[in-house]
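Hi R.,

Here are the chain sequences for the assembly we discussed:
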Amino acid sequence: MSAVPLTGVAVEPTGEPANPAPRNRRAPRVGAEPSRITRLVILIVVGLVFVVPLAAMFEFTLRSAGTTALGFGHYASIFHPDAAAGVDYSPLFQGLRNSLVICLITVALMLLILLPTMLFVELRYPRFRRVLEFVCILPITIPSIVLVVGFVPVYQRVAAIFGSQPWTLAFAVGIIVLPYAYRPIATNISAFDLVTLSEAARSLGGSWPVVVWRVILPNMRRGVVSAVFLTVAVVLGEYTIASFLSQNTFQTALLLISQTDSYVATIFALAALVFAGILLVIIGRFGAIRPGGRERRVRRARPARPTRPVRSRSAS
Amino acid sequence: MTSTSPAPTLERLGEGATVELRGVVKSYAGSRALDRLSLTLAPGEFVALLGPSGCGKTTALRSLAGLESIDAGSILIDGEDVVATPVNKRDIGMVFQQYSLFPHLTVLQNVEFGLQMRRVDSASRRRRAVEALEMVGLDHLAGRFAHQLSGGQQQRVALARALVTRPRVLLLDEPLSALDAKVRVSLREEIRRIQTELGITTLFVTHDQEEALAVADRVAVMRAGEIEQIGSPEELYLTPASAFVADFVGVSNRMRGELQAGTITVRGARLASIDPTLPDGPVLAYVRPEDIAFVPPPTPRRRTSTGRSRRPASSARSGGPRSGSTTTPSCRCSTASSSSSCSATPSRCD
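And here is the predicted structure of the full complex:
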């Protein structure tokens, strides 16, 4: 029921930015590319695997206890809760708000700490690359529950400094998120010649900030966007830490609600899944945009320019 | 400065800069990549650094660029010590071995990048970038992206990008090695033409001796972090200072011989040694193939052939066949650098 496993695990391969090899190969290679029909079949089967549970969830939210008629009554009740019946959805909204704040902070931590660190290691200390990779991948091998046990004493200190605020969870979640954020950025870094490009930019007179901003980051767009979206997805799906550190987040509130009102809980779970799906599509779109894609826009703006078939287009 | 045409290309750079490396030392984890390297480039000169891989030639170039810090010594551009100057302030242009165009920018934007860094206003930036692209003959591809260009085109754009800022020094780090043979030859001619037109001091790193000999005013042969010999291509070829140079530049036949009073006797043929300082004794003679002439044997069998002569006839073949058979070369070797010619590396026969 939780939205976590789907977003967390299924997303990763899609989030890997560079896969340039097959893209540049237009020539048919035996056994390399499935036929149109095969692809269609695969698409339908995989699509059903995704769509059927979602559709079932949606159908469930339309039901009501005691009748067979379907309706949007539960959706309406979210915004107009029946106070008389003692129903209160405000913890859910509060939890959602908390989760979004944690999201923002985690993304900020990742962009301001992880990304610069990775660039720094790549440019200055490539021999520490393996160490960094190990450290960043490590959290995925440790079950959340184990981490939490370690976090509890740490958070006694954190609470002493910052107070027991929900946003402090961002520190813990930031660690959970590391592998998911690290992977797409690392793949992106290895997909282009970071060192040569920055040396070229330096030799042309660019200072380091300019090189990072004007040369490196534009070529890192895909990895960074993937990392951000994966971070968001993981944060929204994170339950264990929030629960054990007694904070109200989206997932904890969802679990609470589901014990009293499974319909509304399902509605929110469905919303979370759809949201994660949309994120995935956006990542995919960013993945498809390559310099050639930019060029398409340029061409549209200036149609008079003679055009030549672009070498690699199979991505679109 | 011999500009052959009024050149509607870039404005002339004037006299070019003097570049001087003095006793440059660079070590990597104990091993010396550069061992007190000294090298001077005259204004407008095209110098090639030639050597086997790992001899420190790229390190030398990168030290000059500022991409590597050096442990000792000084690097002067126009008399100004630039060791403490960061790369982006050294005012150099560089073309890399790897394709280094910014993939997210068009060709024109790539070329404009250096001008942008120098805060040139957009109108003249554009004009100068287009001029630089015209210079390499690619102005019609200004709107393309790097992945839509061939390797040769990418390197030409990289050259335009490096030159558009009119740097004091142009550094070429094996810019041709990723290209196929035909493009490599045409592009090196083009690099030389543009370099001559602009009169820009150029350091060119290559491991391809043909390339170095074809384009450079002077070639410096490097070995283990030191310059073994520097001179014009002719000097290197005709009077190599050591066995290493003789071996690395051009091809040679290595033959055992006996040195006596400036003359080496190889299989009965008498060759003049180019190094008069060598002590007498057994030596290894390096004989250029074109210096070997086959002459008719004294016996009735006739079979003649002469070695290709790329060199002027001044290296006249003399010395009659002392033991004339078709297989024994009878020649006079002007490049009979016996390998112990330099103070180092005596390779006397044992």
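The longest helix of chain A spans residues 90-123. Confidence is low (pLDDT under 50) at residues 1-25, 291-316 of chain A.

Let me know if anything looks off.

Best,
T.
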